[in-house]
Design a protein that fits this description.
Dihydroorotate dehydrogenase B (pyrk subunit), domain 3; alpha/beta; 4-stranded antiparallel β-sheet; Elongation Factor Tu (Ef-tu), domain 3; 7-stranded mixed β-sheet; binds flavin-adenine dinucleotide; 3 domains; about 280 residues; binds FE2/S2 (inorganic) cluster; 18 strands; Rossmann fold
């Protein structure tokens, strides 16, 4: 481990020297990470940033149980086994002009990776909407980037994205300053409703967060006929496709046609195949 940063509400960012992983990582991929050198226990965490030049990746996590709590105690210089990048990644459609990235809670990290990648490789200007019911894992600040069609007063942004020139807006039910009071899909809907018809046709949605958030996002996209990819953060054991501990029902035309393993068939799926 190269760096360890403690954030509000038991959230942490760790930087890992993992050159092979950094070389090949794409947004949506995750690592299966050993949390404690004494135990073989591994846990899945999305890759938030990856730098092939420095050979480092970053992971943002919050503690919920024994594994993540052990991981929070690791220090720079500690050696951890890291399997990755694991899983598939988000894919941009050719006709997308307005990528809309929606992240909730620990679903925020892959959206940061996706935003950076879109900006660097596609030249498109994504809009990132992130929600949290605990303090955001970064200090928020009023955005320098104007987003037309946003409700008045919704100005809080993630400074890192703002500095990259990527528009972001934040939501919470907790009344944090400058944030929209509500859920990410509700702010997305307000933004979308104000777009003209030709702009609407270029919107593609990418989402990661709790299942109830993804269900709501999928419903919003279904209603407006928007393409939507969701990144699932299921329970996992082996993370290599061998144990079936992470399977989800896979739908076609609304009917369950198969069970898919989130670790190797996903974690990114077309929303219509899951919800
Ligand atoms: C592909 C993927 C990417 C992920 N990315 C991140 C990330 O970037 N940052 C992050 O903080 N977390 C992420 N997670 C969730 C993270 O893996 C779990 O929080 C972690 O494994 C919990 O381990 P633990 O030993 O601390 O908790 P456990 O002791 O295993 O569980 C503690 C509590 O958390 C619940 N829990 C555990 N895992 C999950 C889960 N996946 N979903 C919902 N509830 C769960 C359990 O039911 C239990 O109540 C990701 C999960 C997946 C599958
Ligand atoms: S976690 Fe074992 S098959 Fe996915």
């Amino acid at each position: 481990m190269a760096h360890h940063e403690t954030l509000a509400a038991q959230q942490f960012i760790i930087t890992l020297e993992a050159p092979g992983c950094a070389q090949h990582a794409a947004p949506g991929n995750f690592v299966h990470l050993q949390c404690d050198s004494q135990h073989a226990m591994r846990r899945p965490f999305s890759i938030m940033r990856s730098n092939a030049g420095t050979g480092c990746i970053q992971v943002l996590f919050k503690t919920v149980g024994v594994g993540s709590s052990e991981l929070a105690l690791r220090k720079p210089g500690d050696r951890l086994q890291c399997l990755g990048p694991v899983g598939n990644s988000f894919s941009l459609h050719d006709n997308t002009t307005h990528p809309l990235l929606l992240g909730g809670g620990v679903g925020i990290p892959p959206m940061i990776f996706m935003a950076e990648t879109l900006k660097e490789k596609s030249g498109l200007q994504p809009l990132v909407i992130m929600g949290s019911e605990i303090p955001f894992p970064f200090p928020t600040r009023p955005s320098k980037i104007l987003v037309p069609d946003m409700p008045k007063g919704v100005i809080a942004a993630m400074p890192l994205l703002d500095d990259w020139g990527i528009a972001s807006r934040l939501t919470s039910l907790q009344g944090y300053p400058g944030c929209y009071t509500g859920f990410v899909h509700e702010l997305a809907e307000l933004w979308f409703q104000r777009l003209d018809h030709s702009t609407r046709r270029g919107v593609q949605v990418f989402a990661c967060g709790p299942v109830r958030m993804l269900e709501a996002v999928a419903a919003f996209c279904r209603q407006h006929g928007l393409p939507c990819q969701v990144c699932l953060e299921e329970f996992m054991a082996c993370a290599v496709g061998g144990c079936a501990g992470c399977v989800v029902p896979y739908r076609e035309n609304g009917r369950v046609v198969a069970m898919k393993r989130v670790c190797v068939d996903g974690p990114v799926f077309d929303a219509t195949n899951i919800f």
